[in-house]
Specification:
The complex is a heterodimer of chains A (208) and B (427). Chain A has helices at residues 25-35, 47-58, 63-73, 77-84, 106-110, 113-124, 166-177, 194-202, and strands spanning 98-103, 137-142, 153-156, 159-162. Chain A has 208 residues and is of the alpha+beta class. In chain A, strands 2-1-3-4 form a four-stranded mixed beta sheet. In chain B, the strands form two sheets. Chain B has a four-stranded parallel beta sheet, sandwiched between helices. In chain B, strands 6-5-8-7 form a four-stranded mixed beta sheet, with helices on one face. The longest helix of chain B is centred in the C-terminal third of the chain and has 18 residues, at 350-367. Chain B has 427 residues and is α/β, with parallel strands linked by helices. Chain B is 41% helix and 11% strand. Classes of the chains: A alpha+beta (208), B alpha/beta (427).
Chain lengths: 208, 427
């Protein structure tokens, strides 16, 4: 197989998109820090964290990111893309600044999750899995977020909001679209934008 | 039901204590004393104590933790201790709250277990979506490292222990222990063939113990108070307490810690305050989506422990009680659970990958009011073809919601035939 082009759209991972800038020098620094956590010969364990670091730079798992990780870990691009496509938190297209994930398992369904999704889809003229044209909002349906005592539950960049009415949910998301800072989530913290949240998910800022 | 219903708070004792999620608060309430005591014990004595307590894994299978630890070969190969914090079973929310409110309890339990099996490296695999819980853990690990509770030469004993937090990325199957190990190794989270079991060939192909959060959290208490104390709680075969997550159509959804053997009625009608809006109970899951078949009002007095729930025809699973009231459509419930399995099937085995897809498609059609008489037979045919023909338990469990509803709540299913659009039970 010729290098690069032939496998660049493998597993639905998009080829280079216009507007995607190269990875920054910080990426290499962060990647080295994460890779060093694992035993000698087990550097592949850094793969999930590295995919989050790519998302932190590009807002999705870009083709350049896959190439960079492959060369760092001595894997093929297909191996990296194969892992990225397995996990739902690795996004294959650019995400909005705010990713809204609505749980639709029974307890949340009883409590109005379906109506929340229907209203969000209608207000933002997108369906689950899509991003608004202005790039501010992505909506997705997710499996149980394990906060069923707070049903209905949805998260903004993986920070939960609980027991919110349909109108409350819609006005919160509208305020995010209009550039407002999110209100405190159920545990009191304020969600970061999608790229910053992805960086946290990589664990690079953690002590270990 | 007793009028003075009270929880038995062991793991949840610090939940109401301000500052218990920080090291200072944890130390002030006796934290890490059990780890200190354990470091003065012979590792095998710790394993014997946990065995004598008959601490059984709280992740679903109920396998004795001490026995699992004793399988680690004593051949001086490096070994690993892994915490399964990939909580994702629909209806379950106890591990997340255990970590958010008392992270050091988990770290202490893991540290004792690591010392007992002779491991110097432990991993916590945290579900990716748990943003807040992961930050709490990060902070707790940092505090423990700074205080010398983790790291080199802990408390001057010469024992070294490192703790690495790794986040998942959205795959329920990683709650299966071998899939979880694959994910830590940077691979697709697909279950491994067993045997060999992780005890001999686990993380990086080395001896590994995997337990879930709730299981590790009991360890400091067993070391401090002893095996006899632990066995004095719960039932003979299921000693200790269990955190039950109660949700759905009840007045006070939440986590309640009670001894094993507590009747489901106490949890639903007592702690959770009974049915919301005065409705009647139609069904409940004794332990999450994977614990089907669902129970009905007839099973309210079943004791909540592995043996009793199994004798009543279901599974205790993770102890997640989701309550459905009389107005709920069980076809819709089955569809929601089936959609979950269809989405979470890892794709490794054809019966599970294809079976869950067809079940979901067929149930969707039924729920939308386009059911045909023969759909019931199709659903059961497909459902009966999955269990026992797939690699891991996800396949086995995926059939149960459909089997359960097709058998016990067939009336709900029949109302959908010829209803001509939309669910006839729930609008």
């Amino acid at each position: 197989m010729s290098a690069g082009r032939a496998d660049s759209s493998m597993m639905g991972i998009p080829i280079i998109r216009p507007g995607v800038v190269p990875l920054s020098p910080q990426f290499d620094v962060d990647a080295a820090k994460v890779i060093a956590r694992y035993p000698d010969g087990q550097q592949r364990s850094a793969l999930l964290p590295l995919l989050y670091l790519v998302q932190a730079e590009h807002g999705f798992v870009s083709s350049q990111g896959i190439s960079a990780i492959a060369s760092m870990l001595g894997l093929t691009r297909a191996e990296v893309a194969g892992v990225a496509s397995f996990y739902t938190m690795f996004k294959r297209s650019p995400q909005g600044t705010w990713l809204i994930s609505v749980c639709t398992q029974p307890a949340c369904s009883f409590a109005g999750a379906r109506q929340i999704i229907a209203q969000l889809e209608s207000v933002f003229s997108i369906v689950c899995g899509e991003t608004s044209a202005d790039g501010s909002i992505s909506i997705e349906e997710v499996e149980c977020l394990c906060a069923c005592d707070g049903a209905p539950v949805f998260s903004v960049n993986y920070e939960n909001y609980e027991r919110m009415s349909v109108d409350g949910a819609v006005s919160l998301v509208e305020s995010l679209r209009d550039g407002a800072t999110p209100p405190p989530s159920a545990r009191g913290d304020i969600p970061s934008d999608f790229k910053t949240a992805s960086r946290r998910l990589s664990g690079v800022e953690a002590p270990r | 039901m007793s009028a003075t219903l009270q929880e038995t708070k062991i793991l949840t004792a610090r939940w109401e204590m301000p500052g218990a999620d920080r090291l200072e608060g944890y130390l002030a309430s006796g934290g890490y004393e059990a780890f200190k005591a354990a470091l003065a014990m012979a590792p095998d004595d710790i394993i014997e104590t946990v065995k004598a307590a008959n601490l059984r894994g709280r992740g679903g299978a109920g396998f004795p933790a001490g026995l699992k630890w004793s399988f680690i070969p004593k051949d001086r190969r490096p070994s690993y201790l892994v915490c399964n914090f990939d909580e994702g079973e629909p209806g379950t929310f106890k591990d997340r709250e255990l970590v958010e409110r008392d992270p050091h309890q988990l770290i202490e339990g893991m540290a004792i277990a690591a010392y007992a099996i002779g491991s110097h490296e432990m991993y916590i695999f945290c579900r990716g979506e748990f943003g807040y819980a992961a930050r709490v853990l990060e902070r707790a690990i940092g505090e423990a490292m700074e205080r010398g509770i983790l790291g080199k030469d802990i408390f001057g004993t010469g024992f070294d222990l490192d703790c690495i937090l790794i986040r998942g990325a959205g795959a329920y199957i990683c709650g299966e222990e071998t899939a979880l190990l694959e994910a830590i190794e940077g691979r697709r989270g697909q279950p491994r063939l067993r045997p060999p079991f992780p005890a001999t060939h686990g993380l990086f192909n080395l001896p590994t113990v995997v337990n879930n959060v709730e299981t590790f959290a009991y360890v400091p208490h067993i070391i401090t108070k002893g095996a006899d104390w632990f066995r004095s709680l719960g039932t003979e075969k299921a000693p200790g307490t269990k955190i039950f997550s109660v949700s759905g159509d009840v007045v006070r959804p939440g986590n309640y810690e009670v001894p094993f053997g507590t009747p489901a009625r106490d949890l639903i009608e007592g702690f959770a305050g009974g049915m919301k809006d005065g409705k009647a109970l139609k069904a409940f899951t004794p332990g999450g989506a994977s614990s089907t078949p669902f129970f009905g009002p007839e099973e309210l007095d079943v004791s909540m422990d592995w043996e009793s729930v199994q004798a009543a025809g279901s599974l205790l699973g993770t102890g997640a009680i989701i309550v459905f009231n009389e107005d709920r459509c069980m076809v819709r419930a089955a569809h929601r659970f089936t959609a979950f399995y269809a989405h979470e099937s890892c794709g490794k085995c054809t019966p599970c990958r294809e079976g869950t897809y067809w079940l979901e498609q067929t149930l969707r059609r039924v729920e939308d009011g386009r059911a045909r008489e023969e759909d019931l037979k199709t659903l059961l045919d497909v459902a009966n073809s999955i269990p026992g023909r797939s690699f891991c338990a996800l396949g086995d469990f995926s059939a149960a919601p459909v089997q359960s509803v097709a058998q016990r709540w067939q009336a709900d299913f029949r109302k959908h035939i010829g209803s001509g659009g939309g669910c006839p039970i729930e609008s």
